[in-house]
Write a structure and sequence with these properties.
Layout lengths: L2 H9 L7 E10 L6 E11 L4 E5 L6 H8 L7 E6 L2 E2 L5 H11 E5 L10 H12 L5 H11 L14 H14 L4 E5 L7 H18 L3 E4 L3 H4 L4 E6 L2 E7 L3 H9 L9
Helix pairs in contact: 1-3, 4-6, 5-6, 6-7
């Protein structure tokens, strides 16, 4: 896989899924201590859609996100961002693809404390030496509703405001896909709703693709589609979820994720 191929995939994405996994397996450890975190999982993440991944602790939901995002390696199977197979990339090429084609939002805001909100938003592009698309960044800033706080450093922002800056940073470089791991886990319900509304608008208004790991049925209700994992496998799905529907579906599983 060449650097030109990676760049072309970022600049001119195909009409296929934004990301996909094919017979993806992830095993930690060896022999008697081996733990299968993912067991032959195949899934497509459609472009311009918001997908939530849910499941009990140890179900494999965060592992699925981390491997699909190129943050962890697969034991077997294939993982693609656009048309690019992550499993055959060298380390430098994988780092470049994550930088150019993938956005990340984590439970910890991961903002640089010495930089302003605006400097945090544009930081990935500054590091990559890429020219900032000011019109696009202005649109993102207007979407997060923090234009009057752009000069503030993270310590001068509330938790919800910091997470919206982190989400804007992920969106500002126009990645093919954004992976969000429990992005409202450190927020109260009101701040969490603000962040989720921003993510929802980024899909509806800007055609962004988002994959979010969450344990919260209310957070999942902002998505277009929900995947339910248990024991490293996808055991159910739901389209057009509601918080009540997701909660009922979760209650319908036993402790190991099987239908009770």
């Amino acid at each position: 896989m060449t650097q030109d191929t990676i760049a072309a995939s970022h600049e001119s994405p195909t009409a296929g899924p934004a990301a996909r996994a094919v017979e993806l397996t992830k095993v930690y450890g060896e022999g008697e201590t081996a733990v299968t975190a993912l067991d032959s999982v195949s899934v497509d993440f459609g472009r311009g859609r918001f997908t939530a991944i849910m499941g009990p602790s140890g179900s494999g939901k965060s592992t699925l996100m981390h491997v699909c995002a190129g943050l962890d390696s697969a034991t077997s199977g294939k993982v693609y961002i656009g048309d690019v197979d992550l499993t055959v990339l060298k380390d430098n090429d994988l780092t470049r693809l994550r930088r150019d084609a993938v956005g990340f939002v984590f439970q910890a805001f991961n903002l640089v404390p010495t930089l302003s909100a605006l400097e945090n938003i544009t930081l990935p592009m500054d590091i990559a030496g890429r020219k900032v698309d000011q019109e696009w960044v202005d649109s993102v800033i207007d979407t997060i509703g923090l234009r009057d706080r752009l000069r503030n450093r993270p310590s001068q922002l509330s938790g919800g405001q910091q997470q919206r800056v982190a989400a804007a940073r992920a969106l500002a470089s126009r990645p093919q896909i954004i992976f969000a791991d429990e992005p409202t886990g450190n927020l109260d319900s009101r701040a969490g709703a603000e962040v989720l509304s921003f993510l929802r608008r980024s899909v509806d208004d800007h055609g962004q693709t988002i994959v979010m790991v969450t344990h919260d049925p209310t957070a999942a209700s902002y998505a277009d589609h929900v995947l339910f994992l248990a024991d490293g496998q996808i055991v159910d799905t739901m389209d057009n979820p509601t918080a009540e529907g997701v909660l009922d579906r979760m209650k319908g599983f036993d402790g190991k994720g099987r239908r009770s």
